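In the design runs reported in the main text, the only information available to the sequence generator was the tokenized backbone. The following block is the verbatim input for one such run; it is reproduced so that readers can re-run the procedure and compare outputs position by position.
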């Protein structure tokens, strides 16, 4: 009987060992799951969630939300950046008399002036071409950055800072060049309220009218007027936004052990907005002035020969810090824009079952 029991125990020991091994394996897996981020262990619900077109559409939708929420700050920034340029002092009204100068002192004064003199809804003047721009710009920059990142990583987990910077510059430049026509139309529409208050004849009456007028004056290539400073700005902004967000996000997750959550997204997007505003404001000032300058019948600018000439004139006449005119609204806009965009983008992707960006 004793031998039988011993034999039974011996014969049962492998099964017990197997059970213990399984329990140990399950425990180890659970520990690994708890130690890793939410994104890494999240089950994929839909196969299309990480696809090119799904990522493209989600980025456009998230950018549209962010643009609508923060657009008044963009309009205020544009009005501030135009102050002091030669067009404000050279222009005359239709009767040949002196124009009524509109002089705002800062961001809040500019916003209050627009509301008081033009109406609150004018804070969203030009939002239609802005949304059209994001159909191209935001979708292209996100999927291009993702594609370059995957190519440079080559299956590795590590992504060097210089590689991230290269991906950000490349993605931003391509996206902005493709979206420059919509950006040009947006700037023209944004400035019409200011021209009317100065007693000047309106140049355009709508986004469609602005589009037709630009082609009539400069042809198809006239739609890319100011595209050089535009692309330069986009390269710097995306170097600040995409590169900073990606780098800071993974740095925080690696150093603190936090999962891929809203806290990480908020901290990363705030850093991204600050760096993007600091790097992109000078190019943004030059871009806005080149695109807003009056043109002759052939579409050639009357004030600046190009972005370098605009840069030299701005520094020479107004000083270096004129390049940071409108920095406060740029940063105040970029911070909530980046925050709104990345939170919306990550949340939508998470809802679809996609992996963390």
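Verbatim output:
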């Amino acid at each position: 009987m004793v031998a039988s029991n011993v034999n039974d125990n011996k014969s049962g020991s492998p099964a017990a060992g197997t059970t213990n091994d399984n329990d140990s394996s399950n425990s180890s897996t659970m520990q690994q799951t708890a130690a890793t981020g939410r994104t890494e262990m999240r089950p994929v619900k839909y196969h299309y969630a990480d696809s090119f077109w799904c990522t493209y559409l989600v980025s456009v939708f998230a950018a549209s939300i962010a643009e609508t929420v923060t657009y008044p700050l963009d309009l205020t920034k544009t009005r501030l950046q135009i102050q002091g340029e030669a067009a404000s002092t050279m222009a005359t009204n239709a009767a040949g008399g002196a124009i009524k100068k509109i002089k705002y002192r800062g961001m809040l004064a500019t916003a209050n002036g627009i509301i008081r003199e033009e109406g609150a809804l004018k804070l969203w003047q030009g939002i239609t071409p802005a949304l059209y721009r994001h159909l191209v710009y935001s979708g292209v920059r996100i999927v291009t950055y993702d594609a370059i990142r995957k190519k440079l990583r080559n299956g590795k987990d590590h992504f060097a800072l210089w590689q991230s910077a290269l991906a950000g510059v490349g993605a931003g430049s391509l996206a902005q060049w493709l979206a420059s026509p919509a950006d040009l139309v947006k700037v023209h529409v944004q400035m019409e309220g200011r021209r009317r208050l100065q007693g000047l004849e309106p140049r355009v009456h709508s986004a469609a009218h602005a589009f037709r007028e630009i082609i009539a004056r400069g042809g198809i290539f006239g739609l890319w007027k100011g595209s050089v400073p535009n692309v330069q700005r986009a390269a710097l902004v995306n170097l600040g936004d995409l590169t900073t967000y990606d780098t800071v996000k993974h740095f925080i997750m690696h150093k603190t052990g936090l999962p891929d959550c809203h806290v990480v997204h908020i901290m990363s997007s705030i850093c991204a907005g600050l760096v993007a505003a600091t790097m992109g404001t000078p190019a943004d000032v030059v871009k806005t002035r080149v695109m807003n300058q009056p043109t002759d019948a052939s579409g050639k600018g009357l004030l600046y020969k190009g972005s370098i000439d605009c840069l030299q004139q701005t520094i020479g006449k107004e000083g270096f810090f004129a390049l940071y005119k409108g920095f406060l609204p740029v940063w105040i806009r970029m911070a909530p824009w980046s925050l709104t965009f990345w939170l919306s983008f990550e949340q939508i992707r998470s809802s679809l079952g996609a992996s963390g960006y």
